[in-house]
Amino acid sequence: MSEQNNESGDSPVTTRKGVRSFVLRQGRMTEGQKKAYERNWPKYGLTREQGMIDPREIFGRDNMLNLEIGFGMGQSLADMAEAAPEQDFIGVEVHLPGVGALLKEVEDRGLENIRIYAIDANDVVDLCLPDAALDRVMVYFPDPWPKKKHHKRRLVQHDFVQRLRHKLRVGGILHLATDWENYAEHMMEIMGESEGFENSVEPGAFAPRPDERPMTKFEKRGENLGHGVWDLLFYRTN
Fold it and tell me: Which residues bind substrate (predicted)?
Protein backbone atom coordinates (compact mmCIF):
# COMPACT_ATOMS: atom_id res chain seq x y z
CA MET A 1 0.00 0.00 0.00
CA SER A 2 1.35 3.42 -0.86
CA GLU A 3 1.70 6.06 1.80
CA GLN A 4 -1.57 7.92 2.20
CA ASN A 5 -2.13 11.35 3.61
CA ASN A 6 -4.41 12.06 6.51
CA GLU A 7 -6.70 15.05 6.91
CA SER A 8 -4.87 15.94 10.14
CA GLY A 9 -2.08 17.28 7.94
CA ASP A 10 -0.20 16.81 4.70
CA SER A 11 2.14 14.19 6.11
CA PRO A 12 1.63 10.49 5.35
CA VAL A 13 -0.14 8.19 7.80
CA THR A 14 3.07 6.19 8.16
CA THR A 15 6.75 6.65 7.40
CA ARG A 16 7.50 2.94 7.68
CA LYS A 17 8.22 0.75 4.68
CA GLY A 18 7.32 -2.90 4.24
CA VAL A 19 4.55 -4.96 5.83
CA ARG A 20 1.72 -2.99 7.47
CA SER A 21 -0.62 -4.13 10.21
CA PHE A 22 -3.47 -2.02 8.82
CA VAL A 23 -5.21 -1.18 5.58
CA LEU A 24 -6.81 2.25 5.31
CA ARG A 25 -10.55 1.82 4.84
CA GLN A 26 -11.23 5.49 5.37
CA GLY A 27 -14.90 5.75 4.51
CA ARG A 28 -16.63 9.06 5.04
CA MET A 29 -17.00 10.95 8.27
CA THR A 30 -20.56 11.82 9.15
CA GLU A 31 -21.40 15.51 9.21
CA GLY A 32 -21.33 15.44 13.02
CA GLN A 33 -17.95 13.73 13.12
CA LYS A 34 -16.51 16.13 10.56
CA LYS A 35 -17.67 19.20 12.46
CA ALA A 36 -16.38 17.77 15.76
CA TYR A 37 -13.06 17.06 14.04
CA GLU A 38 -12.78 20.59 12.66
CA ARG A 39 -13.63 22.17 16.02
CA ASN A 40 -11.53 19.95 18.24
CA TRP A 41 -8.51 18.60 16.35
CA PRO A 42 -6.44 21.77 16.93
CA LYS A 43 -6.78 21.28 20.70
CA TYR A 44 -6.73 17.49 21.10
CA GLY A 45 -4.76 16.35 18.05
CA LEU A 46 -1.08 15.44 18.15
CA THR A 47 1.16 15.09 15.09
CA ARG A 48 4.38 13.38 14.10
CA GLU A 49 5.82 16.80 13.27
CA GLN A 50 5.70 17.77 16.96
CA GLY A 51 8.40 15.17 17.54
CA MET A 52 9.07 13.70 20.97
CA ILE A 53 6.44 15.01 23.36
CA ASP A 54 6.62 15.82 27.05
CA PRO A 55 3.34 14.39 28.43
CA ARG A 56 3.49 16.72 31.43
CA GLU A 57 3.52 19.65 29.03
CA ILE A 58 0.75 18.21 26.86
CA PHE A 59 -1.62 17.53 29.75
CA GLY A 60 -0.39 20.17 32.16
CA ARG A 61 0.16 17.62 34.92
CA ASP A 62 2.13 14.48 35.81
CA ASN A 63 -0.44 11.69 36.17
CA MET A 64 -0.83 8.05 35.19
CA LEU A 65 -0.47 7.92 31.39
CA ASN A 66 -2.26 5.37 29.20
CA LEU A 67 -1.82 4.66 25.50
CA GLU A 68 -4.53 2.92 23.48
CA ILE A 69 -3.46 1.68 20.05
CA GLY A 70 -6.29 1.32 17.55
CA PHE A 71 -9.24 2.80 19.42
CA GLY A 72 -11.74 2.17 16.62
CA MET A 73 -14.73 4.49 17.01
CA GLY A 74 -13.44 5.66 20.39
CA GLN A 75 -16.36 4.71 22.65
CA SER A 76 -14.29 2.56 25.01
CA LEU A 77 -11.49 5.12 25.23
CA ALA A 78 -13.98 7.87 26.04
CA ASP A 79 -15.57 5.62 28.68
CA MET A 80 -12.20 4.94 30.29
CA ALA A 81 -11.18 8.60 30.28
CA GLU A 82 -14.52 9.66 31.75
CA ALA A 83 -14.31 6.99 34.47
CA ALA A 84 -10.75 8.00 35.43
CA PRO A 85 -10.42 11.81 35.21
CA GLU A 86 -7.29 11.59 37.36
CA GLN A 87 -5.52 9.67 34.56
CA ASP A 88 -4.42 10.80 31.10
CA PHE A 89 -4.99 8.96 27.82
CA ILE A 90 -3.37 9.06 24.38
CA GLY A 91 -5.29 7.31 21.61
CA VAL A 92 -3.94 6.21 18.23
CA GLU A 93 -6.17 5.48 15.22
CA VAL A 94 -5.51 5.76 11.47
CA HIS A 95 -9.18 5.69 10.41
CA LEU A 96 -10.54 9.23 10.36
CA PRO A 97 -14.22 8.42 11.00
CA GLY A 98 -13.08 6.91 14.31
CA VAL A 99 -11.01 10.01 15.10
CA GLY A 100 -14.02 12.21 14.35
CA ALA A 101 -16.29 10.00 16.46
CA LEU A 102 -13.92 10.18 19.45
CA LEU A 103 -13.56 13.95 19.12
CA LYS A 104 -17.36 14.19 19.22
CA GLU A 105 -17.39 12.09 22.42
CA VAL A 106 -14.65 14.27 23.90
CA GLU A 107 -16.67 17.39 23.13
CA ASP A 108 -20.03 15.99 24.28
CA ARG A 109 -18.60 14.69 27.57
CA GLY A 110 -16.26 17.62 28.23
CA LEU A 111 -13.19 15.36 28.50
CA GLU A 112 -9.86 17.12 29.00
CA ASN A 113 -7.67 14.04 29.60
CA ILE A 114 -7.47 12.68 26.03
CA ARG A 115 -5.09 13.45 23.17
CA ILE A 116 -5.12 11.78 19.76
CA TYR A 117 -2.69 10.69 17.04
CA ALA A 118 -4.12 9.87 13.59
CA ILE A 119 -0.97 8.13 12.30
CA ASP A 120 0.60 4.67 12.36
CA ALA A 121 1.21 3.47 15.92
CA ASN A 122 4.75 2.49 14.91
CA ASP A 123 5.56 6.14 14.25
CA VAL A 124 3.97 7.20 17.53
CA VAL A 125 6.08 4.68 19.45
CA ASP A 126 9.32 5.37 17.59
CA LEU A 127 9.16 9.12 17.03
CA CYS A 128 6.76 10.68 19.53
CA LEU A 129 6.89 9.00 22.95
CA PRO A 130 9.83 9.22 25.37
CA ASP A 131 11.14 6.08 27.04
CA ALA A 132 9.49 5.01 30.32
CA ALA A 133 6.68 7.56 29.82
CA LEU A 134 3.73 5.16 29.91
CA ASP A 135 2.01 3.38 32.78
CA ARG A 136 -0.20 1.24 30.57
CA VAL A 137 -0.46 0.30 26.89
CA MET A 138 -3.75 -1.12 25.62
CA VAL A 139 -4.22 -2.99 22.35
CA TYR A 140 -7.84 -4.12 22.23
CA PHE A 141 -9.19 -6.26 19.39
CA PRO A 142 -6.55 -5.49 16.75
CA ASP A 143 -7.13 -6.79 13.23
CA PRO A 144 -6.63 -10.57 13.59
CA TRP A 145 -5.51 -11.12 9.99
CA PRO A 146 -6.99 -14.64 10.22
CA LYS A 147 -5.49 -16.11 7.03
CA LYS A 148 -2.17 -17.80 7.76
CA LYS A 149 -0.45 -16.02 4.86
CA HIS A 150 -1.38 -12.70 6.52
CA HIS A 151 -0.17 -13.53 10.05
CA LYS A 152 2.97 -11.50 9.38
CA ARG A 153 0.70 -8.41 9.29
CA ARG A 154 -0.46 -8.90 12.87
CA LEU A 155 0.52 -5.95 15.05
CA VAL A 156 1.59 -8.03 18.04
CA GLN A 157 5.05 -9.31 17.10
CA HIS A 158 8.34 -9.65 19.00
CA ASP A 159 9.84 -6.43 17.61
CA PHE A 160 6.78 -4.30 18.32
CA VAL A 161 6.41 -5.66 21.85
CA GLN A 162 10.03 -4.85 22.65
CA ARG A 163 9.64 -1.32 21.34
CA LEU A 164 6.56 -0.90 23.52
CA ARG A 165 8.49 -2.25 26.49
CA HIS A 166 10.93 0.66 26.35
CA LYS A 167 8.06 3.15 26.40
CA LEU A 168 6.57 1.58 29.55
CA ARG A 169 7.95 2.37 32.96
CA VAL A 170 9.19 -0.64 34.93
CA GLY A 171 6.06 -2.12 36.47
CA GLY A 172 3.89 -0.69 33.67
CA ILE A 173 1.23 -2.91 32.08
CA LEU A 174 0.80 -4.11 28.51
CA HIS A 175 -2.83 -5.17 28.12
CA LEU A 176 -3.84 -7.11 25.01
CA ALA A 177 -7.32 -8.40 24.17
CA THR A 178 -8.76 -10.33 21.23
CA ASP A 179 -11.84 -12.34 20.34
CA TRP A 180 -9.90 -14.60 17.94
CA GLU A 181 -8.59 -17.68 19.74
CA ASN A 182 -5.80 -18.25 17.23
CA TYR A 183 -4.59 -14.68 17.70
CA ALA A 184 -4.85 -15.06 21.48
CA GLU A 185 -2.56 -18.09 21.26
CA HIS A 186 -0.18 -16.13 19.01
CA MET A 187 -0.14 -13.23 21.50
CA MET A 188 0.53 -15.56 24.42
CA GLU A 189 3.41 -17.20 22.56
CA ILE A 190 4.92 -13.82 21.69
CA MET A 191 4.54 -12.44 25.22
CA GLY A 192 5.82 -15.61 26.85
CA GLU A 193 9.04 -15.29 24.85
CA SER A 194 9.40 -11.53 25.29
CA GLU A 195 12.34 -10.32 27.34
CA GLY A 196 11.48 -7.99 30.22
CA PHE A 197 7.82 -8.99 30.61
CA GLU A 198 6.05 -11.19 33.12
CA ASN A 199 2.51 -12.51 33.07
CA SER A 200 0.44 -10.78 35.76
CA VAL A 201 -1.51 -13.98 36.40
CA GLU A 202 0.79 -16.98 35.88
CA PRO A 203 2.86 -18.28 32.96
CA GLY A 204 0.67 -19.16 29.98
CA ALA A 205 -2.55 -18.00 31.66
CA PHE A 206 -5.09 -15.55 30.31
CA ALA A 207 -6.42 -12.93 32.71
CA PRO A 208 -10.01 -12.14 33.67
CA ARG A 209 -11.28 -8.97 32.00
CA PRO A 210 -10.27 -6.09 34.29
CA ASP A 211 -13.10 -3.75 35.29
CA GLU A 212 -11.31 -0.81 33.70
CA ARG A 213 -11.60 -2.34 30.21
CA PRO A 214 -15.13 -1.43 29.09
CA MET A 215 -17.15 -4.20 27.52
CA THR A 216 -18.19 -3.10 24.04
CA LYS A 217 -21.58 -3.79 22.45
CA PHE A 218 -19.76 -6.01 19.96
CA GLU A 219 -18.19 -7.97 22.80
CA LYS A 220 -21.51 -8.36 24.64
CA ARG A 221 -23.16 -9.61 21.47
CA GLY A 222 -20.33 -12.09 20.92
CA GLU A 223 -20.52 -13.27 24.53
CA ASN A 224 -24.26 -13.91 24.12
CA LEU A 225 -23.44 -16.02 21.06
CA GLY A 226 -20.87 -17.98 23.03
CA HIS A 227 -17.80 -16.33 21.51
CA GLY A 228 -14.73 -16.07 23.71
CA VAL A 229 -12.61 -13.04 24.55
CA TRP A 230 -9.04 -13.40 25.79
CA ASP A 231 -7.20 -10.81 27.89
CA LEU A 232 -3.44 -10.81 28.42
CA LEU A 233 -1.88 -8.60 31.08
CA PHE A 234 1.90 -8.48 31.25
CA TYR A 235 4.00 -6.05 33.24
CA ARG A 236 7.48 -4.75 32.47
CA THR A 237 10.06 -6.24 34.79
CA ASN A 238 13.20 -4.48 33.57
Answer: 147, 179, 216-219
